[in-house]
Write a structure and sequence with these properties.
The protein has 32 residues and is mostly helical. It has two helices and no strands. The longest helix has 25 residues. The chain is rod-shaped.
Length: 32
């Protein structure tokens, strides 16, 4: 249970970072 919680806590920011990078690559005019 602790390991699963740790995984979700560490995986969520990484997924958010990937989404930010993908959105920056696909919508550069919105970010700038």
């Amino acid at each position: 249970m602790i390991l699963a919680n740790l995984f979700s806590v560490t995986a969520a920011p990484i997924n958010g970072l990937k989404l930010n990078i993908i959105s920056m690559l696909t919508f550069p005019e919105i970010c700038y």
